[in-house]
Amino acid sequence: MKDLFGKALLDYYHGNYTEDLKTATNISDEDVLPLPYLFRAFNEMPKLEQKAVQLSKGKTLDVGCGSGSHSLYLQDKGIQVKAIDISDGAVEVSQQRGVKNAEVLNILDETECFDTILLLMNGTGIFQELSQISTYLSHLKTILNEGGQILIDSSDIKYMYQDEDGGFWMDANSSYYGELDYFLSYKGQQESPMKWLYLDFNTLLTACIAIGLKCDLILEGEHHDYLAKIYC
Q: Per the confidence metrics, is the pTM higher than 0.85?
């Protein structure tokens, strides 16, 4: 990977902001991801994110930390937080912004245990495909302290397949409708395509029950999105 996401964050942080990231999926046209949004303060966060960071307690892991906005909020509240991301640039920006403990790390390689694990900004995306959910949830279960919680958000994107008559044009023989190919570009460069998973709540609940985890719906947003709490 070229780490275009990290390069964009570094550009913005160091005052070289000339354009935004561009994103697309196999079912949607190109869209703009404004760089300032990735540096948002608490009062600029969606309600689901605000609720998640407010519910965070104890030793906390911020998975896919990006520029470190959630970690910085938690640090300011006196919470011990570790921020991880697979983007070198994102971790570098997080550190430069003041995140005390930030590391380039894939969640599946994390070995420390935590009281709260945060997966925000469509946290189910890192699962990549429906077939991988149990692998990720099982690992998260092993690094969750007794009485701990996983706070995760996602969206049910079934609405994206709806036609003008209210019907749905999904192919019953295809893979789960939330499995997408995700494309990112920045300053004329294309990132390697990624697998990205949007997960409806009932499917997440079923996956949790299958490996002995509980899952509660905490809050629903205004755009088919939701925040869930997973625990033992």
A: yes
